[in-house]
Amino acid sequence: MLKTGISAVLMLGFGFVILAAALPDIVNRSETVRTNTTQETGKGCSTGVGQSSCDVTLIASHAYADTTAMVVTETSPGSADRTSNSSISASDRVTVTVSGLSASTAYVFTIDYAIVDPSVSGPLGQLLASLPLLLVVGLVAVVAFTTAKTFHVF
């Protein structure tokens, strides 16, 4: 019985190592299927007197609640990457706030961002977004079940 228990623990440990190695690739592939990249150019906004930020409205909803997979580039009056100074409204995912700007200035931006692919929206999109978590929970369930059966807990 001890030999069976040790081999079961080793096999489960091996399963965890395989999952840990494969999980980044699984996440990348599921997000590639779930999302498409789009670009909007000529998105303008102006800062007011004493203001250092302005809001830009996207045409489509961003796929993430934060700036993951988003690049905000200032094209006028200068040229700079403003991604680190940008945030997106988590409630609507279409309003991008760009901060760290000069007051009383008109700006133009190019924004690259991810949208949910229309063919995978709805339940399939939710499944693909949850896939990494489901894999981890599934492996933990297998570990718990196998351990219980090996040591005759049930």
- Major sheet: size, sense and barrel closure? 4 strands, antiparallel
Low-confidence spans: none
Terminal-residue CA separation = 16 Å
Question: Which term fits the overall shape?
Answer: elongated
Assign a percent range to the helix content: 25-40%
Rg over C-alpha atoms, rounded to the nearest angstrom: 23 Å
H/I helix tally = 2
* Broad structural category: alpha+beta
On the 0 to 100 scale, the average pLDDT is 86
Oligomer: single chain
The sequence of SSEs as H and E is HEEEEEEEH
A few lines on this structure:
This protein has 154 residues and is of the alpha+beta class.
Q: Your description of this structure?
A:
The structure is a single chain. The protein is of the alpha+beta class and 154 residues long. It has one domain (2-150). It is 40% helix and 29% strand. Strands 1-7-3-4 form a four-stranded antiparallel beta sheet. Strands 2-6-5 form a three-stranded antiparallel beta sheet, with no helix packed on it. A hairpin with a 3-residue loop joins strand 3 (71-76) and strand 4 (80-81). Helix 1 (2-34) runs antiparallel to helix 2 (123-150). The chain is elongated, with a radius of gyration of 23 Å.
